[in-house]
Amino acid sequence: MAKTDQTHSSSRIKTNTEAMDVYVEKAAVKNQFLAALIACLAAVSVGMCVGFTSPAEPDMKLPGRRFRLTVAEASLFASLINIGALCGGLIAGFIVDFLGRKSALIYMAIPNVVGWLCIIYAESIGLLYFGRLITGICAGIACLNTPVYMTEIASPEIRGILGSGFQLFVNFGITFTYTVGAFVPWSYLAVVTAVIPILLMALMIPMPESPVWLVRQGRVAEAMHALKWLRGSDVDVREEVENLRDQQNADGAISIREFLKPSLYKPLILLLTQMFIQQFAGINAVVFNAAQIFEMAGSSMDPKIEAIIVAAVMVMASIVAATLIDKAGRRFLLLLSAACMAVSLMVLGGYFYLYAHDKESAANVSWLPIICLILYCFVFNIGFGPIPWLMMGELFPSQARGLASSLVTASSWTMAFIITKTFQDMQDALQPYGAFWFFGCVCVAAIPFTWFFVPETKGKSIQEIQMYFNKEI
């Protein structure tokens, strides 16, 4: 009887211990999600900045508004975010390595607010342009800093879902801007947009700094404290800190010569190509001109409502991506994304070809553009939307992450500027159907590239991923 009681007692102790471990693990995951969620306010701000022009431009052209922009002025206003983000991307690596990931998120919110205040109170087009440029610079920095911060605080098991949160909240920002912009003047919309970086500053202060960055600075005690908060107070984080220190010692200092090594130039080329595909698949041309595309297609629905629907689909797709990315893997979602984008863009191009040559027949399928764009936006946001940004935080060694990510971010915004600025010229030269067929061909080319060159990083630690490229030497 005593033996039975002892067995039952041992079972209860074991059960209670396991339950406590699960509780601690869940609490730690909640902390990681909380820190990532607050950091993603920067992504919301990026999305609102990107989506601002779609509802704002038509309003700015109306008689009686403070500004009545010409077509050329509106095009420049839309494109200035890309120029600013290019500049921001180039300096982002230095800023996040110097200030730290968390501190950079806080301090960069200040000029972001200033930029929106310039737009709100602008009495001249020059000040309007200046505000747009400043918010673009902050967007470029956020596009590097936010994914890197989330990658560096996350456990390998949830790094995919946290990393994909960046694209999710960018899309949420776009959707929110489209929705609010459909009902209020552009100046009121700018006021709403200026609130987000203020919230980011306030809420980010109590969050932990990146443990990876802290170890690089020799602040090991602070790194352990940050990891205790992120992993759970009852978790022994000494092994993880030692691994980070060993990795830091193995990586050494960064120099230009390091970029000649396959362990660095291979992931750099891979990510630059992914960013090329991301932008030349036409996503920014679609987002910046969503309402105009539907109007051009002759759809009977209010173009602003259609644009909101497309943006909402992007949010839903990002949620799907977040749930699948650590289950299905990066490669599968990239391949699915490229194939489905190619189909939707080719069909969309076919519709515009029909519209150009037989408007009556096109009127019978006026629903086709919104179906194609919904499919396109959905599959983009489960693959080539979030994954390149996630992999940017995964593939580079820690000592090169700032500089290499700057190059990738700057290249992304450079290509975004090219596509946004030349989209109208491309339509004039190739016709709308030719422009969408061009984007579709880029997506077709993405399939063999992904199949042969993109490694699977699902469930692997940062150290294991870097070992993969070191083995290729």
TrEMBL record:
Name this polypeptide is given: Major facilitator superfamily (MFS) profile domain-containing protein
Keywords tagged on the record: Cell membrane, Glycoprotein, Membrane, Transmembrane, Transmembrane helix, Transport
Localization: Cell membrane
Boundaries of every Major facilitator superfamily (MFS) profile domain copy: 35-458
Coiled coil start-end: none
Family: Belongs to the major facilitator superfamily. Sugar transporter (TC 2.A.1.1) family. Trehalose transporter subfamily.
Primary subcellular site in the record, as a coarse category: membrane
Source organism (scientific name): Strigamia maritima
GO terms for cellular component: plasma membrane
UniProt-listed InterPro entries: MFS_dom (IPR020846), MFS_ERD6/Tret1-like (IPR044775), MFS_sugar_transport-like (IPR005828), MFS_trans_sf (IPR036259), MFS_Trehalose_Transporter (IPR050549), Sugar/inositol_transpt (IPR003663), Sugar_transporter_CS (IPR005829)
